[in-house]
Amino acid sequence: xxxxxxxxxxxxxxxxxxxxxxxxxxxxxxxxxxxxxxxxxxxxxxxxxxxxxxxxxxxxxxxxxxxxxxxxxxxxxxxxxxxxxxxxxxxxxxxxxxxxxxxxxxxxxxxxxxxxxxxxxxxxxxxxxxxxxxxxxxxxxxxxxxxx
Length: 148
Fold this sequence. Notes:
Layout: E1 9-11, E2 29-31, H1 42-51, E3 58-61, H2 65-74, E4 79-82, H3 109-115, H4 141-147
Parallel strand pairs: 1-2, 3-4
Helix pairs in contact: 1-2
């Protein structure tokens, strides 16, 4: 196991076309994509970049919080952190999970119970006379209205 250890690694100035950006990463490797503020608005560039790809399991944004919320409103991800990493899975009561290619549904806390449960609707009707005003067309509506 010690020979397979990889220290947390930050990859700076990663090209969107590089191999590390082609598949989801499960390990302590953090490719960093930087955006300039020339041309389109910064938020528009980030939103366009994220939405051009599969929905990520995690979305980490470093910058102004106001911009982060603007971007998060337009981008779908399993979880997200603003100016932090991995803390979205640390809270055992907060739902964690992916969306789209990165997974489906969430677990942790109550969500774990719900995701592994089946919610079922059951309608129980008595064995008494089946009254015709339950069904369309409602010809007997005026009679029902008088009774009620």
